[in-house]
Write a structure and sequence with these properties.
The protein is of the alpha+beta class. The chain is built from 3 helices and 3 strands; from the N terminus they run βααββα. β2 and β3 (43-47) form a beta hairpin. The chain starts with 7 loop residues before the first strand and ends in an 11-residue tail after the last helix. The model has no long low-confidence stretch (mean pLDDT 94).
Length: 68
């Protein structure tokens, strides 16, 4: 993954990183779910650190996650 913590990403760029589709991000915003975002006028932006933080909260650990 090439998300830089200090960069801001448009929804299409988030989709291009295979994190979530643009439509899913829009639905999550409407439902007050998903990663934090910034409204800049009518533009929606996601800060890289917020994307990374949100992804970490979605992590599910399994009992064999440490297996080599």
């Amino acid at each position: 993954m090439s998300i830089h913590p200090e960069k801001y990403y448009r929804p299409t760029e988030v989709e291009n990183e295979n994190i979530a589709k643009v439509q899913t991000l829009a639905s999550w915003r409407h439902q007050n779910k998903g990663p934090n975002y910034v409204l800049s006028g009518s533009r929606v932006l996601y800060k890289g650190s917020d994307i990374i933080s949100w992804l970490n909260t979605q992590r599910i650990e399994t009992s064999d996650g440490d297996a080599a």
